[in-house]
């Protein structure tokens, strides 16, 4: 499994917890704000979770600039490759 695939899986897993969704309802095109109604607190919880999972430091503002689950996974992959 690639870092991106793992990140995608972890983000979907966390979205299920944060937004009360089922994994099959989410995909890499799911938008955090428009589709899930994400607020700043949700984004903060997501970044904290991903920092622990991948042992990287995630910029809150950079993460917020990624509107979809797939784009967020791309960002985590970039951070892990640095």
What does this structure look like?
This protein is mostly helical and 82 residues long. 61% of the residues lie in helices and 0% in strands. It has helices spanning 3-19, 40-54, 60-64, 69-81.
From the structure above, extract its key features.
82 residues, mainly alpha, 4 helices
What is the rounded Rg?
A: 11 Å
DSSP strand content: under 5%
The separation of the N and C termini measures: 19 Å
What kind of sheet is the major sheet?
none
The succession of helices and strands, N to C, reads HHHH
In DSSP terms (H or I, runs of 4 or more residues), the helix count works out at: 4
Average of per-residue pLDDT values: 96
Based on secondary structure, the structural category is mainly alpha
Total beta strand runs: 0
Helix content: 55-70%
Unreliable spans are none
- Principal-axis shape equals globular
Regarding quaternary structure, how should these chains be classified?
Answer: single chain
Structure at a glance:
The chain has 82 residues and is an all-alpha fold.
Secondary-structure map with pairings?
Layout: H1 3-19, H2 40-54, H3 60-64, H4 69-81
């Amino acid at each position: 499994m690639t870092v991106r695939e793992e990140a995608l899986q972890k983000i979907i897993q966390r979205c299920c917890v944060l937004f009360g969704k089922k994994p099959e309802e989410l995909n890499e095109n799911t938008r955090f704000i428009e589709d899930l109604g994400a607020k700043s607190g949700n984004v903060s919880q997501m970044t904290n979770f991903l920092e622990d999972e991948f042992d990287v430091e995630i910029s809150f503002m950079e993460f917020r600039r990624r509107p979809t689950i797939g784009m967020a996974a791309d960002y985590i992959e970039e951070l892990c490759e640095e």
